[in-house]
Amino acid sequence: MRGYAAEASLLSPGSGGSGATFAFPSFGLNGWNGSVVVNATSWLGGEADFSGFYGMPTRTVARTPVTLGMHEYNYMAGPRFTYRHGRWAPFAHALFGGSRASVVIGAAEVIQPITIVETKYAMAFGGGVDVRVYRGLALRLAQGDWLVTNFVGGHQKNIRLSAGFVFQL
Predict the structure, then answer these.
(1) DSSP E strands: which ranges in 83-169?
(2) In this structure, what are the phi and psi dihedrals at residue 136, rounded to the nearest 5 degrees?
(3) Which residue has the higher pLDDT, 6 or 156?
(4) Dihedral sign, CA of 17, 23, 29, 32?
(5) pLDDT at 15 over 50
(6) What is the greatest pairwise CA distance in the chain?
């Protein structure tokens, strides 16, 4: 789940529209997150991270209910630094790659919803903590990332939180 703030220019002046800009209030998305890490040493590894987020929030903008249907997929890679101490393994990473978002904006007064699909650069900085529960199995207690994307001509700075299981080979 993560917070998301969208500021979008709905119609560009060249499209025959008014070039209206609105700020869509922040909202949360649900989804999934997975990664693969190959360790070069006990403390340094290379990580490939993949995630997907989905949501359909409705907010009131200029006294009109607006629904924003969104799918976002992120694919990033970068270094991971891990400090191993007994069963505990806190880590930090810096990830760089891309993000693809598909957004459908609809309102009661709009006959044809507006669809925007973009693929842009993305980066994430953060870390988390794993605790080994059994040989080959650990529990990711928490992972938090600051995820930056750049859609519809504006920057989105979001928090991505996740937890789950870690399978170690």
Answers:
(1) 88-107, 114-134, 137-151, 154-167
(2) 90, -5
(3) 156
(4) positive
(5) no
(6) 63
Cα distance between residue 169 and residue 55, in whole Å = 34
Predicted confidence (pLDDT) per residue in 150-168, tens digit: 887 777 888 999 999 999 8
Q: What is the pLDDT of residue 154?
A: 76
| 90 DSSP assignment | E
Per the CB < 8 A criterion, the answer to whether 101 and 71 are in contact is: yes
Residue with structure tokens 């903008």? 61
**CA terminus-to-terminus distance, the chain:** 28
CA 133 from centre of chain: 28
pLDDT tens digits, residue range 78-123? 999 999 999 999 999 999 999 999 988 888 777 788 888 999 999 9
For residue 75, the 8-state DSSP code is E
Cα distance between residue 19 and residue 26, in whole Å: 22
Nearest one of 32, 37, 72, 34 to 50, comparing CA atoms: 34
Residues forming a β-bridge with 51: 33, 74
Is 2-167 a domain of CATH 2.60.40.2890?
no
H-helix or E-strand containing 33?
Answer: strand 21-39
Distance CA 78, CA 94 (A): 6
